[in-house]
Amino acid sequence: MSTLARRAAAEFTGTAFLVMAVVGSGVMASRLSPDDVGLQLLQNSFATGAALVALIVALQPVSASFNPVVTLAERLLGVLDTRTAAGLIAAQFAGGLAGTVLANLMFGLDAVTFSSHERIGAGLWLGEVIATAGLLVIVFGTLRSGRADRVAFAVGGYITAAYWFTSSTSFANPAVTAARTVTDTFAGIAPASAPAFILAQLLGGAVGFVLVRVLYPAPAALARANLLPAHDEPANEYPLAKDQSR
């Protein structure tokens, strides 16, 4: 298997499991706590944050962005070439949709049901801008300061918190947003609401990218002893995108 195919498989798998965590925990929370929306959100946020930590730790040696905005930022930083970035983004969208279908089926729902949950309003869109900008600062701030071994915990903690301090509950991911249009459950978003969310996420990504370049103009050297993979490849400044395309 080629390096790009292996990395695309990791992005597909990671994004699928991430969306299963988001959608599946939303369904479970709705069934366990049907009369308490706050408790449902708490359960949903904890499951999502924990899944993110585990998935990044497991897949970081291969590829663990799970987010087109992060992958686009890696392309702009010169970490990825255009072909690789396009392949990883396609895998993220495909993995997200697969994750939603599997979550729906796990809970006895139709494989695909378009969401009726409208999420519209300037406050929600601003929430997505802020959530996505903050995510990029967390991801690349951790990586560019030479602490790649902590990025999983930083991202998981941030997303868990952002569920609560943003008005939109922090989708912050175009692939996950698109995937959540095909589940009419707690985590769903109506297809008509998704384009504005994705546009806000791209804007937030641009803001976050500028902040990263201002705050971390040059990446710190990574500590080889702690970050080298088992097969002893050279360390990469951006372990979320571990191997360069060959």
Please tell me about this protein's structure.
With 246 residues, the protein is mainly α. Helix content is 64%, strand content 0%. It contains nine helices and no strands. It has helices spanning 3-32, 37-59, 68-76, 82-106, 122-144, 151-165, 174-179, 194-215, 224-227. The longest helix has 30 residues, at 3-32. The chain is globular and about 50 Å long.
Helix % is 55-70%
Major sheet: none
Supply the number of helical segments: 9
Strand content: under 5%
Q: Give average pLDDT, whole number.
A: 91
Poorly predicted residue ranges: 221-235
Distance between the termini: 12 Å
- Give the SSE string: HHHHHHHHH
Structural class by sheet pairing and helices: mainly alpha
What general form does the structure show?
globular
Radius of gyration: 17 Å
Q: What is the number of strand segments?
A: 0
What secondary-structure arrangement, pairings included, does this model have?
Elements: H1 3-32, H2 37-59, H3 68-76, H4 82-106, H5 122-144, H6 151-165, H7 174-179, H8 194-215, H9 224-227
Helix pairs in contact: 1-2, 1-4, 2-6, 3-4, 5-6, 5-8
Give me a quick take on this structure.
By secondary structure, the chain is mainly alpha-helical. It has helices at residues 3-32, 37-59, 68-76, 82-106, 122-144, 151-165, 174-179, 194-215, 224-227.
List keywords for this structure.
globular, 9 helices, 246 residues
